[in-house]
Amino acid sequence: MQMMALAASKLAALGATVNSVNLGSHQLPDGQHLPLPPVILGELGKDPQNPTVCFYGHVDVQPARREDGWKTDPYTLTEIDGNLYGRGSTDNKGPVLAWINAVETFRALKLAIPVNFKFIIEGMEEAGSLGLEKLLEEEKQCFFSGVDFIVISDNLWLSKKKPALTYGTRGNACFFVEVEGGDKDLHSGTFGGIVHEPLMDLIALLDSLVDPTGHIQIPGIYDSVAALTEEERKLYESIEYDIEEHKNNSGVKKFLYSSKEEILLHLWRYPSLSIHGIEGAFHEPGIKTVIPAKVIGKFSIRQVPYMDLSVVKQQVEEHLKNVFSKRNSPNKLKVSMPLGAKPWVADVNDPLYKAARRAIKTDTTTLKEPKCLQPSSWRYQSYVGSYMKRPAQRLTTDRPSSQN
Ligand SMILES: [Zn+2]
Q1: What does UniProt give as the signal peptide span (predicted)?
Q2: Nearest 5°: phi and psi at 19?
Q3: What percentage of the chain exceeds 70 in pLDDT?
Q4: How many angstroms separate the alpha carbon of residue 223 from the centre of ligand 1?
């Protein structure tokens, strides 16, 4: 909320008209209502001769604590050797500020700004942009009318040296798989060996999703994935990408694939499935001989063109029900998809991409980014119907949403 107010005042200081749109509240699983931060809609310049550029950014961050391994206080911007460290410095407060600074610079140099600006700044991106889609739809004919171009600076460079322009993102379909036994946790001394344990069912379900080579085991999931053309395969050969550097950034010893092309194809071009956590399982240090009554597994699928969200949802549900039925468990199974974001892809030859290449004035990598950052990105295009580009302003080594 504080950050939203700060962003609004920064825009107002530029002379922009600022409208903080109230998004109401969000109901938590326990029934509690939490107010959502407002979305800022700012407007600067209305010259009908100039094109209108809409800039999207977010000023919320993922949680960070010193104990997570930060060398400095994550909420105090700290300069070390010319680099700025702090939560959000790269994702995404820094890029938002860069755009505000760019307008300030034009002003300070008394240069005419060749475009009209519209700013949309939100504070819920890291939580799935709650409430944003509804606002986009409502504002389609109002705030977004007359927008010619959309720019989102919320992604990564691929290498340390070459700037990157993103022309696509994978989608993200998040799933909950819930297994419920009785209405209370049990003790393994009293019940271990005579009950169908929900956590055992869940682990079997989660284990059925992906094989050790990373291949998704859900029947039909690859059916709609666009076939890889020879021309596209060639594009991957010329991309500058340092496997060792990426490996060092990740802290892991080995990737699933060894060639640059295979790694990039599996990051951008093919779907992937990740398992994120289990709610309700005992996870604290030490021993507790509990048999949890209800556990919820959380996983997500990064889907690619032309996988359809509703089909993916159906395939996941059918697969899990099928695996579960073979266990003859009396426990209750529930599968849901609380978040679904479609993949997005743009034409790298449209005018905005050409302008971006000119602006960067150096050789660029065009990439489909390795991480979908903002579930609603495709919707801007569908609601606004304009060109969109995403110049990346941060390096992979900036470790967005990680420690410094
Ligand atoms: Zn971001």
Answers
A1: none
A2: -125, 115
A3: 89
A4: 31
Residue 79 CA to ligand 1 center (angstroms) comes to: 21
Domain chopping of the chain, boundaries: 2-170+344-398, 172-225+270-340
Beta bridge partners of 55: 119, 151
> When comparing pLDDT for 91 and 357, which is higher?
91
Q: Which of 122, 125, 139, 369 is catalytic?
A: 125
- Name the H helices within 109-148: 132-139
- How far does the centroid of ligand 1 lie from the alpha carbon of residue 91, in Å? 5
81 a catalytic residue: no
125 has catalytic annotation = yes
CATH 3.30.70.360 fits 172-225+270-340, yes or no: yes
Rounded alpha-carbon distances, angstroms, from residue 396 to 93, 118, 399: 16, 28, 6
Residue 392 predicted with pLDDT over 60:
no
Please name every residue paired with 232 in a beta bridge, in sequence order, or none if there are none.
none
Q: What is the mean pLDDT of residues 328-338?
A: 98
338 C-alpha to ligand 1 centroid (Å): 20
Could you tell me the distance, in angstroms and rounded to a whole number, from the CA of residue 330 to the centre of ligand 1? Answer: 42
256 DSSP assignment: S
Q: What is the pTM of this model?
A: 0.69
Rounded CA-CA distance 251/246 in Å is 9
| CATH superfamily membership of 2-170+344-398 | Zn peptidases (3.40.630.10)
Looking at residue 367, what is its pLDDT?
52
What mean pLDDT is reported for the chain? Answer: 87
pLDDT beyond 60 at 396: no
